[in-house]
């Protein structure tokens, strides 16, 4: 049975999954999981990229020690927009900044003085958001110009990590589509935008197609880990593109939800949708594993609850899903709502207090207990997902009949059920490790073991279990939704 290494690196943790394929079914095993958090120092948030690299090598070593010393290839997917800068000798110039860096908003403000948000959307199909690569780059240009002066190559995060393993420089198509620097519907950088911002076009490494073999692991890696060379494959570098590839979407009336720190909701399309409604409602277009696009909206996910847990743990209160579920069940429904995507929740010092202040300012009952806060978060998230799906229907002219949820956040069964209730749609949840499965799919296609994405989805359906959720209590939800809409429109 052939095996591949699928590295799925998220904005809160990373993991190595060993995916085996026997010609009919996939079999997946978690080899190693590690924490990944931005580091705040000298007024900036950074990613500790060398620690990520070290943890990835540790994961490979553990896999080899378990007897998996014959691996066909490896692929890496990560979150979007972030990047590293290399010198002309190939050295990493600095730790990459995190998209949560506060200076990004100032970079966006400066860029929008030169080119409007509407024109950026028309040219790239990507929603204007401070996290985007374009604004990070311009922030660096304003605050740390000497860094850009020394930079020779920009590599997006999955390709930066692949470079550390293979020595090959390129930017894969799906991850490139998150930057707001890619020309809409094309596989090339938008030169006019780069010219306006006075950023050299050759700074960005060339774009390479998804599902291509870019090289092999370096001799130094092979010697260190005592392994044979392993092919390094450009899977869909963006974790959402991987996740969508693994979801068993059956027709064009199905919506995908890739659920983690963020929740991305959308539908596959052949070409970017850049209408005025898509722009006004904050939708974006990003590439898929098969060279097409996803019309989607980026939404807050489990970040809200993750950050509340940080505060509770700081206060000495232990928590786990079972405890949270019990507290959730004991709390009253529809008591208080927040707009999950309000900017105040992006990177607050204390998420619990921020939620309480929001409810106080909007003249709602202030959630005091952990259960009330958890219910406020989860119900608000589900309501927002309903709001997004209603607008997807208007943009595509198609009625959504089913929602496919994948990713780590579907372990929270309350979120899945609330999403079914809020949207009045059937929810099919699974597979949990959708991103790493999609990563492996990309490798199997590149290796010629699976023909295409359609065949891959059939294999996934027969290989991994899913759970179905059906909506309930619709009258109560309809009334509550009308209250919620007040906070987002």
UniProtKB/TrEMBL annotation:
Q: Which GO terms describe its molecular function?
A: ATP binding; glycerol kinase activity; rhamnulokinase activity
Report the record's Gene Ontology biological process terms.
Answer: glycerol metabolic process; rhamnose catabolic process
Q: Could you tell me the superkingdom of the organism this chain comes from?
A: Bacteria
Q: Which residues form the Carbohydrate kinase FGGY N-terminal domain?
A: 6-244
Cross-referenced CDD domains: ASKHA_NBD_FGGY_RhaB-like (cd07771)
Say if the entry is tagged with keyword Repressor: no
Tell me its family: Belongs to the FGGY kinase family.
The molecule here is called Rhamnulokinase
What organism is recorded for this protein? Gracilibacillus ureilyticus
């Amino acid at each position: 049975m052939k095996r591949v290494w699928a590295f799925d690196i998220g904005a809160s943790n990373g993991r190595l999954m060993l995916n085996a394929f026997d010609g009919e079914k996939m079999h997946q095993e978690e080899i190693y999981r590690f924490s990944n958090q931005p580091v705040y120092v000298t007024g900036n948030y950074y990613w500790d990229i060398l620690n990520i690299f070290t943890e990835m090598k540790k994961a490979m070593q553990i896999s080899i020690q378990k007897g998996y010393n014959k691996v066909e290839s490896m692929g890496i997917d990560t979150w979007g927009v972030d990047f590293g800068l290399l010198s002309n000798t190939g050295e990493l110039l600095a730790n990459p900044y995190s998209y949560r860096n506060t200076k990004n908003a100032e970079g966006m403000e400066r860029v929008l003085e030169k080119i409007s948000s509407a024109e950026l959307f028309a040219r790239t199909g990507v929603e204007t958001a401070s996290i985007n690569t374009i604004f990070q780059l311009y922030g660096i240009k304003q605050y740390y110009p000497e860094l850009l002066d020394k930079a020779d190559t920009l590599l997006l995060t999955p390709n930066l990590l692949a470079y550390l393993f293979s020595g090959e420089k390129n930017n894969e198509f799906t991850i490139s589509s998150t930057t707001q620097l890619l020309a809409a519907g094309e596989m090339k950088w938008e030169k006019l935008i780069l010219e306006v911002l006075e950023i050299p076009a050759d700074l960005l490494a060339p774009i390479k197609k998804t599902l291509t073999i870019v090289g092999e692991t370096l001799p130094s890696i092979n010697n260190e880990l005592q392994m044979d060379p392993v092919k390094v494959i450009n899977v869909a570098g963006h974790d959402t593109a991987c996740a969508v590839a693994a979801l068993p979407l059956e027709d064009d009336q199905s919506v995908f939800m890739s659920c983690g720190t963020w929740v991305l909701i959308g539908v596959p399309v052949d070409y970017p949708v850049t209408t005025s409604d898509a722009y006004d409602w904050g939708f974006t277009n990003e590439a898929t594993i098969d060279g097409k696009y996803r019309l989607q909206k980026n939404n807050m996910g489990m970040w809200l609850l993750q950050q509340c847990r940080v505060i509770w743990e700081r206060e000495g209160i232990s928590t786990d899903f079972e405890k949270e579920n019990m507290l959730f069940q004991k709390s009253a429904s529809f008591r208080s709502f927040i707009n999950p995507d309000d900017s105040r929740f992006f990177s607050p010092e204390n998420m619990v207090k921020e939620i309480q202040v929001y409810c106080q300012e909007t003249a709602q009952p202030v959630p005091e207990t952990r259960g009330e806060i958890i219910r406020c978060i989860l119900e608000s998230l589900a309501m927002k997902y309903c709001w997004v799906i209603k607008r997807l229907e208007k943009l595509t002219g198609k009625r959504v009949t089913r929602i496919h949820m994948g990713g780590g956040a579907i372990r929270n069964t309350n979120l899945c059920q609330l999403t079914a209730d809020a949207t009045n749609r059937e929810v099919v949840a699974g597979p949990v490790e959708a991103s790493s499965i999609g990563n492996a799919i990309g490798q199997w296609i590149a290796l010629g073991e699976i023909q295409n994405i359609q065949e891959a989805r059939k294999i996934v359906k027969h290989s991994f279990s899913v759970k179905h959720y059906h909506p309930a209590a619709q009258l109560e939800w309809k009334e509550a939704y009308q209250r919620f809409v007040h906070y987002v429109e």
